[in-house]
Amino acid sequence: MQIKRLRLTGFKSFVEPTELRIEPGLTGVVGPNGCGKSNLLEAIRWVMGESSPKSMRGGGMEDVIFAGTSSRPPRDFAEVAIHCDTEGAVVAGLSDATEGHELEVIRRIERGAGSAYRANGRDVRAKDVALIFADAATGAHSPALVSQGKIANVIAAKPTERRAMLEEAAGIAGLHVRRKDAEQK
Ligand code: ATP
Ligand code: MG
């Protein structure tokens, strides 16, 4: 699975709609302190289903919505769209919603109304989105996304935590989600 495009609207410091094309190969994001580099990584994690405000450096989930500055009023929603090429990836649970190799997942949060997801134009649950990306060996908690200061966490991780990281990297994390789901039924 390859990320092709990312579109942010009202997400953290990206108040105006901003679209980024991500070319194959290594992508570097450079800029002065506070310009929004980490916010970009958080946008990717958020659209993939991140549900912990703490790992988004916020107190509550609505903190991802542009909070306003002295010259701009706050926004009442934030939206992130991620466009992926799914060639070679298993996109289970959503095969009917993937047209060809294109997959677009959109997450939107409105003040007071929580967040909602769409995958290729259809309403889906957070769980479905988590599965799509877990199967593709990526996702909100994947070691493919390394935040500032997280290298130290890997070194200090307990064996069980390290095992979870390896399972994510191996692309089998989705199986655990399904097992949990099956056990609840
Ligand atoms: P560094 O080089 O220091 O790591 P960075 O490029 O990673 O910086 P970020 O941490 O991504 O920068 O961006 C921080 C900026 O985003 C700050 O200016 C902060 O005020 C702004 N920001 C974060 N959340 C919001 C929000 N909800 N509304 C408006 N601005 C926000
Ligand atoms: Mg940063």
From TrEMBL:
**Localisation:** Cytoplasm
Domain of life the protein comes from: Bacteria
* Chain residues that bind ATP: 32-39
Subunit and partners: Homodimer.
Q: Give the function comment from the record.
A: Required for chromosome condensation and partitioning.
Q: Which family does it belong to?
A: Belongs to the SMC family.
**What is the UniProt domain comment for this protein?**
Contains large globular domains required for ATP hydrolysis at each terminus and a third globular domain forming a flexible hinge near the middle of the molecule. These domains are separated by coiled-coil structures.
In Swiss-Prot or TrEMBL terms, this protein is called: Chromosome partition protein Smc
Shown stretch of the complete protein: 1 to 185 of 1147
